[in-house]
Protein backbone atom coordinates (compact mmCIF):
# COMPACT_ATOMS: atom_id res chain seq x y z
CA UNK A 1 0.00 0.00 0.00
CA UNK A 2 1.12 3.57 -0.60
CA UNK A 3 -0.18 6.31 1.70
CA UNK A 4 0.99 9.87 1.09
CA UNK A 5 0.43 11.97 4.20
CA UNK A 6 3.05 14.64 3.45
CA UNK A 7 0.54 17.35 2.62
CA UNK A 8 -2.97 18.00 1.34
CA UNK A 9 -1.28 19.55 -1.71
CA UNK A 10 -0.68 16.06 -3.15
CA UNK A 11 -4.35 15.57 -4.01
CA UNK A 12 -5.22 14.68 -7.60
CA UNK A 13 -8.21 16.19 -9.40
CA UNK A 14 -11.17 13.82 -9.34
CA UNK A 15 -12.72 12.55 -12.60
CA UNK A 16 -15.67 14.95 -12.17
CA UNK A 17 -13.30 17.86 -11.61
CA UNK A 18 -11.29 16.91 -14.70
CA UNK A 19 -14.47 16.73 -16.75
CA UNK A 20 -15.41 20.27 -15.75
CA UNK A 21 -11.88 21.49 -16.53
CA UNK A 22 -12.16 19.92 -19.96
CA UNK A 23 -15.39 21.77 -20.72
CA UNK A 24 -14.44 25.14 -19.22
CA UNK A 25 -14.94 28.11 -21.56
CA UNK A 26 -11.57 29.85 -22.00
CA UNK A 27 -10.21 33.25 -22.95
CA UNK A 28 -7.14 35.34 -22.27
CA UNK A 29 -7.20 36.38 -18.63
CA UNK A 30 -4.51 39.03 -19.13
CA UNK A 31 -7.17 40.79 -21.23
CA UNK A 32 -9.67 39.96 -18.43
CA UNK A 33 -11.34 37.78 -21.05
CA UNK A 34 -11.41 34.33 -19.50
CA UNK A 35 -15.02 33.68 -18.49
CA UNK A 36 -14.11 30.81 -16.17
CA UNK A 37 -11.55 32.91 -14.27
CA UNK A 38 -13.99 35.81 -14.04
CA UNK A 39 -16.72 33.50 -12.74
CA UNK A 40 -14.43 32.02 -10.10
CA UNK A 41 -13.27 35.45 -8.93
CA UNK A 42 -16.87 36.60 -8.59
CA UNK A 43 -17.87 33.41 -6.80
CA UNK A 44 -15.14 33.45 -4.15
CA UNK A 45 -15.48 37.20 -3.57
CA UNK A 46 -19.24 36.81 -3.02
CA UNK A 47 -18.80 33.76 -0.78
CA UNK A 48 -16.41 35.61 1.51
CA UNK A 49 -18.18 38.97 1.36
CA UNK A 50 -15.65 41.00 -0.63
CA UNK A 51 -16.05 43.32 -3.63
CA UNK A 52 -13.44 41.57 -5.74
CA UNK A 53 -10.97 38.70 -6.01
CA UNK A 54 -7.88 37.81 -8.01
CA UNK A 55 -6.97 34.30 -9.17
CA UNK A 56 -3.26 33.64 -8.66
CA UNK A 57 -1.07 30.60 -9.32
CA UNK A 58 0.08 30.04 -5.71
CA UNK A 59 -0.65 30.94 -2.12
CA UNK A 60 2.82 32.42 -1.87
CA UNK A 61 2.11 34.84 -4.71
CA UNK A 62 -1.26 35.64 -3.17
CA UNK A 63 0.36 36.63 0.13
CA UNK A 64 3.04 38.60 -1.72
CA UNK A 65 0.40 40.53 -3.67
CA UNK A 66 -1.46 41.20 -0.42
CA UNK A 67 1.57 42.36 1.58
CA UNK A 68 2.80 44.62 -1.23
CA UNK A 69 -0.67 46.06 -1.78
CA UNK A 70 -1.18 46.87 1.90
CA UNK A 71 2.38 48.07 2.55
CA UNK A 72 4.81 50.42 0.81
CA UNK A 73 8.60 50.45 0.96
CA UNK A 74 9.57 51.22 4.58
CA UNK A 75 6.29 49.97 6.05
CA UNK A 76 6.08 46.90 8.26
CA UNK A 77 3.59 44.15 9.01
CA UNK A 78 3.04 42.33 12.29
CA UNK A 79 3.05 38.56 11.83
CA UNK A 80 3.55 35.33 13.79
CA UNK A 81 6.93 33.57 13.80
CA UNK A 82 5.40 30.40 12.36
CA UNK A 83 3.19 32.00 9.75
CA UNK A 84 3.76 31.05 6.15
CA UNK A 85 4.02 34.67 4.98
CA UNK A 86 6.93 35.25 7.36
CA UNK A 87 8.77 31.93 7.57
CA UNK A 88 8.08 29.95 4.41
CA UNK A 89 8.03 32.44 1.55
CA UNK A 90 11.70 33.31 1.17
CA UNK A 91 11.20 36.70 2.76
CA UNK A 92 9.41 37.86 -0.40
CA UNK A 93 7.89 41.00 1.11
CA UNK A 94 11.38 42.18 2.10
CA UNK A 95 13.05 41.05 -1.12
CA UNK A 96 10.52 42.41 -3.60
CA UNK A 97 8.80 45.13 -1.61
CA UNK A 98 11.29 46.48 0.93
CA UNK A 99 8.58 45.75 3.47
CA UNK A 100 9.81 44.82 6.94
CA UNK A 101 8.22 42.09 9.00
CA UNK A 102 7.75 42.34 12.77
CA UNK A 103 7.44 38.70 13.83
CA UNK A 104 5.91 37.77 17.21
CA UNK A 105 5.94 34.49 19.15
CA UNK A 106 2.73 32.50 19.12
CA UNK A 107 0.78 31.50 22.20
CA UNK A 108 0.01 27.79 22.69
CA UNK A 109 -3.27 28.06 20.76
CA UNK A 110 -1.54 29.64 17.76
CA UNK A 111 -2.71 33.19 18.46
CA UNK A 112 -0.52 36.26 18.99
CA UNK A 113 -0.98 37.84 22.43
CA UNK A 114 -2.95 41.09 22.12
CA UNK A 115 -0.45 42.81 24.43
CA UNK A 116 2.39 41.73 22.14
CA UNK A 117 0.58 43.09 19.09
CA UNK A 118 -0.10 46.38 20.82
CA UNK A 119 3.52 46.66 22.02
CA UNK A 120 4.78 46.00 18.48
CA UNK A 121 2.81 48.86 16.91
CA UNK A 122 5.35 51.66 16.50
CA UNK A 123 4.61 55.33 17.13
CA UNK A 124 4.96 57.77 14.26
CA UNK A 125 8.65 58.49 14.74
CA UNK A 126 11.50 58.63 12.23
CA UNK A 127 13.32 55.85 14.11
CA UNK A 128 10.70 53.27 13.21
CA UNK A 129 9.28 51.57 10.19
CA UNK A 130 5.61 52.52 9.71
CA UNK A 131 3.43 49.74 11.14
CA UNK A 132 0.72 49.22 8.54
CA UNK A 133 -0.71 45.73 8.74
CA UNK A 134 -1.59 42.82 11.00
CA UNK A 135 -1.31 39.48 9.20
CA UNK A 136 -2.91 36.39 10.77
CA UNK A 137 -3.22 32.81 9.57
CA UNK A 138 -6.10 30.34 10.03
CA UNK A 139 -5.70 27.44 10.29
CA UNK A 140 -2.14 27.71 11.60
CA UNK A 141 -0.29 24.40 11.63
CA UNK A 142 -3.73 22.77 11.59
CA UNK A 143 -4.93 24.78 14.59
CA UNK A 144 -8.26 26.56 14.44
CA UNK A 145 -7.62 30.10 15.69
CA UNK A 146 -10.49 30.93 18.08
CA UNK A 147 -13.04 33.24 16.47
CA UNK A 148 -13.43 35.53 19.49
CA UNK A 149 -9.66 36.03 19.43
CA UNK A 150 -9.75 36.91 15.72
CA UNK A 151 -12.45 39.48 16.43
CA UNK A 152 -10.43 41.00 19.29
CA UNK A 153 -7.09 41.05 17.43
CA UNK A 154 -8.52 42.55 14.25
CA UNK A 155 -10.49 45.14 16.26
CA UNK A 156 -7.27 46.11 18.04
CA UNK A 157 -5.52 46.46 14.68
CA UNK A 158 -8.32 48.70 13.39
CA UNK A 159 -8.21 50.92 16.47
CA UNK A 160 -4.57 51.58 15.65
CA UNK A 161 -5.28 52.25 11.99
CA UNK A 162 -3.74 49.00 10.73
CA UNK A 163 -5.09 46.95 7.84
CA UNK A 164 -5.77 43.26 8.41
CA UNK A 165 -4.81 40.36 6.17
CA UNK A 166 -5.71 36.71 6.65
CA UNK A 167 -3.62 33.95 5.13
CA UNK A 168 -6.52 31.55 4.86
CA UNK A 169 -4.74 28.93 2.78
CA UNK A 170 -6.83 26.47 4.81
CA UNK A 171 -9.70 28.85 5.63
CA UNK A 172 -12.27 26.22 4.72
CA UNK A 173 -10.70 23.69 7.09
CA UNK A 174 -11.04 26.35 9.78
CA UNK A 175 -14.63 27.04 8.73
CA UNK A 176 -15.58 23.36 8.84
CA UNK A 177 -13.99 22.93 12.28
CA UNK A 178 -15.69 26.11 13.53
CA UNK A 179 -19.01 24.96 12.10
CA UNK A 180 -18.70 21.73 14.10
CA UNK A 181 -18.55 23.90 17.24
CA UNK A 182 -21.27 26.44 16.41
CA UNK A 183 -23.63 24.18 14.47
CA UNK A 184 -23.74 26.71 11.60
CA UNK A 185 -22.91 26.02 7.96
CA UNK A 186 -19.22 26.00 6.96
CA UNK A 187 -19.81 28.71 4.33
CA UNK A 188 -21.35 30.94 6.97
CA UNK A 189 -18.36 30.40 9.23
CA UNK A 190 -15.91 31.13 6.39
CA UNK A 191 -17.70 34.42 5.69
CA UNK A 192 -17.76 35.29 9.41
CA UNK A 193 -14.02 34.78 9.69
CA UNK A 194 -13.40 36.73 6.47
CA UNK A 195 -15.56 39.64 7.68
CA UNK A 196 -12.87 40.52 10.26
CA UNK A 197 -10.27 41.22 7.53
CA UNK A 198 -9.54 43.68 4.73
CA UNK A 199 -8.07 40.90 2.61
CA UNK A 200 -8.15 37.11 2.64
CA UNK A 201 -6.08 34.60 0.69
CA UNK A 202 -7.41 31.06 0.14
CA UNK A 203 -5.73 28.04 -1.49
CA UNK A 204 -7.68 25.78 -3.84
CA UNK A 205 -4.74 23.40 -4.24
CA UNK A 206 -4.72 22.03 -0.69
CA UNK A 207 -7.59 20.22 0.99
CA UNK A 208 -10.06 21.53 -1.58
CA UNK A 209 -8.34 19.27 -4.09
CA UNK A 210 -7.83 21.52 -7.13
CA UNK A 211 -4.50 21.04 -8.94
CA UNK A 212 -3.28 24.67 -8.86
CA UNK A 213 -4.39 28.07 -7.66
CA UNK A 214 -5.28 30.48 -4.90
CA UNK A 215 -7.47 33.56 -4.68
CA UNK A 216 -6.86 36.88 -3.00
CA UNK A 217 -10.02 38.74 -1.96
CA UNK A 218 -10.50 42.37 -0.96
CA UNK A 219 -11.97 45.71 -1.97
CA UNK A 220 -12.00 46.74 -5.64
CA UNK A 221 -9.17 49.25 -5.06
CA UNK A 222 -7.09 46.74 -3.16
CA UNK A 223 -7.52 44.09 -5.86
CA UNK A 224 -6.57 46.63 -8.55
CA UNK A 225 -3.27 47.19 -6.70
CA UNK A 226 -2.77 43.45 -6.21
CA UNK A 227 -3.42 42.90 -9.93
CA UNK A 228 -0.45 45.15 -10.74
CA UNK A 229 1.79 43.22 -8.32
CA UNK A 230 0.62 39.91 -9.79
CA UNK A 231 1.66 41.13 -13.24
CA UNK A 232 5.09 42.20 -11.95
CA UNK A 233 5.51 38.83 -10.24
CA UNK A 234 4.83 37.08 -13.54
CA UNK A 235 1.48 35.72 -12.41
CA UNK A 236 -0.63 36.97 -15.32
CA UNK A 237 -1.88 33.68 -16.78
CA UNK A 238 -3.61 33.33 -20.13
CA UNK A 239 -6.18 30.51 -20.61
CA UNK A 240 -6.25 29.92 -16.87
CA UNK A 241 -9.94 29.00 -17.00
CA UNK A 242 -9.18 25.28 -16.87
CA UNK A 243 -7.60 25.84 -13.47
CA UNK A 244 -10.31 28.23 -12.35
CA UNK A 245 -12.95 25.64 -13.29
CA UNK A 246 -11.26 23.09 -11.03
CA UNK A 247 -11.23 25.61 -8.18
CA UNK A 248 -14.88 26.43 -8.80
CA UNK A 249 -15.76 22.73 -8.72
CA UNK A 250 -13.89 22.42 -5.42
CA UNK A 251 -15.91 25.25 -3.89
CA UNK A 252 -19.14 23.55 -4.96
CA UNK A 253 -18.26 20.00 -3.94
CA UNK A 254 -15.27 19.76 -1.63
CA UNK A 255 -15.95 22.06 1.33
CA UNK A 256 -18.19 19.94 3.53
CA UNK A 257 -16.14 16.81 2.89
CA UNK A 258 -13.19 18.42 4.69
CA UNK A 259 -14.94 17.09 7.81
CA UNK A 260 -13.98 13.59 6.59
CA UNK A 261 -10.30 14.61 6.51
CA UNK A 262 -10.60 15.97 10.04
CA UNK A 263 -12.18 12.70 11.22
CA UNK A 264 -9.35 10.73 9.59
CA UNK A 265 -6.74 12.84 11.40
CA UNK A 266 -8.50 12.08 14.70
CA UNK A 267 -8.64 8.40 13.74
CA UNK A 268 -4.89 8.37 13.13
CA UNK A 269 -4.25 10.20 16.41
CA UNK A 270 -6.34 7.66 18.31
CA UNK A 271 -4.55 4.75 16.65
CA UNK A 272 -1.15 6.18 17.61
CA UNK A 273 -1.99 7.07 21.19
CA UNK A 274 -0.41 4.96 23.91
CA UNK A 275 2.77 4.14 21.97
CA UNK A 276 5.70 4.71 24.32
CA UNK A 277 7.95 7.51 23.04
CA UNK A 278 5.26 9.25 20.97
CA UNK A 279 3.45 12.39 22.04
CA UNK A 280 0.37 12.69 19.84
CA UNK A 281 -1.26 16.12 19.62
CA UNK A 282 -5.04 16.19 19.37
CA UNK A 283 -5.71 17.36 15.80
CA UNK A 284 -8.27 20.14 15.35
CA UNK A 285 -8.41 19.83 11.55
CA UNK A 286 -6.51 17.72 9.01
CA UNK A 287 -2.95 18.04 10.34
CA UNK A 288 -1.55 15.74 13.00
CA UNK A 289 1.78 16.33 14.75
CA UNK A 290 3.51 13.51 16.56
CA UNK A 291 6.62 14.23 18.64
CA UNK A 292 9.27 11.63 19.35
CA UNK A 293 10.37 11.85 22.97
CA UNK A 294 13.00 10.26 25.17
CA UNK A 295 14.75 7.19 23.75
CA UNK A 296 12.44 7.20 20.71
CA UNK A 297 14.28 10.28 19.44
CA UNK A 298 17.35 8.14 18.78
CA UNK A 299 15.23 6.02 16.46
CA UNK A 300 13.77 8.87 14.43
CA UNK A 301 15.90 8.31 11.32
CA UNK A 302 15.17 4.57 11.46
CA UNK A 303 11.45 5.27 11.82
CA UNK A 304 11.44 7.56 8.79
CA UNK A 305 13.30 4.87 6.82
CA UNK A 306 10.80 2.23 7.99
CA UNK A 307 7.89 4.44 6.90
CA UNK A 308 9.50 4.94 3.48
CA UNK A 309 10.13 1.21 3.09
CA UNK A 310 6.50 0.48 3.86
CA UNK A 311 5.11 3.13 1.52
CA UNK A 312 3.98 5.64 4.15
CA UNK A 313 5.05 9.22 3.47
CA UNK A 314 5.11 11.97 6.10
CA UNK A 315 7.31 15.00 6.80
CA UNK A 316 9.55 15.82 9.78
CA UNK A 317 12.06 13.87 11.81
CA UNK A 318 11.61 14.40 15.56
CA UNK A 319 8.26 16.05 14.99
CA UNK A 320 6.39 14.09 12.35
CA UNK A 321 3.56 15.69 10.42
CA UNK A 322 0.72 13.68 8.91
CA UNK A 323 -1.83 15.45 6.73
CA UNK A 324 -5.09 13.81 5.71
CA UNK A 325 -6.86 14.68 2.46
CA UNK A 326 -9.13 13.68 -0.40
CA UNK A 327 -6.87 10.86 -1.57
CA UNK A 328 -6.53 8.94 1.70
CA UNK A 329 -9.21 6.86 3.36
CA UNK A 330 -9.69 4.99 6.62
CA UNK A 331 -7.88 1.93 5.28
CA UNK A 332 -4.86 4.07 4.39
CA UNK A 333 -4.80 5.75 7.78
CA UNK A 334 -5.16 2.39 9.56
CA UNK A 335 -2.31 1.00 7.46
CA UNK A 336 -0.06 3.97 8.36
CA UNK A 337 -0.86 3.46 12.05
CA UNK A 338 -0.09 -0.26 11.86
CA UNK A 339 3.26 0.43 10.17
CA UNK A 340 4.20 2.79 13.02
CA UNK A 341 2.97 0.39 15.70
CA UNK A 342 5.01 -2.44 14.14
CA UNK A 343 8.13 -0.30 14.26
CA UNK A 344 7.80 0.31 17.99
CA UNK A 345 6.92 -3.34 18.70
CA UNK A 346 10.02 -4.65 16.96
C1 LIG B 1 0.59 26.31 1.45
C2 LIG B 1 0.45 27.60 2.13
C3 LIG B 1 0.72 28.80 1.48
C4 LIG B 1 1.38 28.88 0.11
O1 LIG B 1 0.80 28.17 -0.86
P1 LIG B 1 1.65 27.73 -2.17
O2 LIG B 1 0.57 27.54 -3.16
O3 LIG B 1 2.35 26.48 -1.79
O4 LIG B 1 2.57 28.83 -2.51
C5 LIG B 1 0.51 29.97 2.16
N1 LIG B 1 0.05 29.97 3.41
C6 LIG B 1 -0.22 28.84 4.08
C7 LIG B 1 -0.76 28.92 5.46
C8 LIG B 1 -0.03 27.61 3.47
O5 LIG B 1 -0.30 26.50 4.14
UniProtKB/TrEMBL annotation:
Enzyme Commission identifier(s): 4.1.2.49
InterPro entries: ArAA_b-elim_lyase/Thr_aldolase, Low_specificity_L-TA-like, PyrdxlP-dep_Trfase, PyrdxlP-dep_Trfase_major, PyrdxlP-dep_Trfase_small
Record GO biological process: glycine biosynthetic process; L-threonine catabolic process
Residues recorded as bearing N6-(pyridoxal phosphate)lysine in the entry: 206
UniProt keyword list: Lyase, Pyridoxal phosphate
Annotated Gene Ontology cellular component terms: cytosol
Residues covered by the Aromatic amino acid beta-eliminating lyase/threonine aldolase domain: 4-292
Transmembrane segments: none
Cofactor(s) it depends on: pyridoxal 5'-phosphate
Gene3D superfamilies linked: Aspartate Aminotransferase, domain 1, Type I PLP-dependent aspartate aminotransferase-like (Major domain)
Family: Belongs to the threonine aldolase family.
Assembly and binders: Homotetramer.
Descriptive protein name: L-allo-threonine aldolase
Biological source species: Polaromonas vacuolata
Gene: ltaA
Amino acid sequence: MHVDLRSDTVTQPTPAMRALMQEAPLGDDVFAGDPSVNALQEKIAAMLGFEAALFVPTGTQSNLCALLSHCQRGDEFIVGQMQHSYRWEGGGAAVFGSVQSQPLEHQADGSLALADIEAAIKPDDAHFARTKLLALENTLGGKLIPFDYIQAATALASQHGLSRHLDGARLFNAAVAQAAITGADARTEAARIASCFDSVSVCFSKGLGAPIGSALCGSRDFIARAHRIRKMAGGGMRQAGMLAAAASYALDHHIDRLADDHALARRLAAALSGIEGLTVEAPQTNILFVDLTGAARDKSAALVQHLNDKGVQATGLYRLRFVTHLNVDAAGVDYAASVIRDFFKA
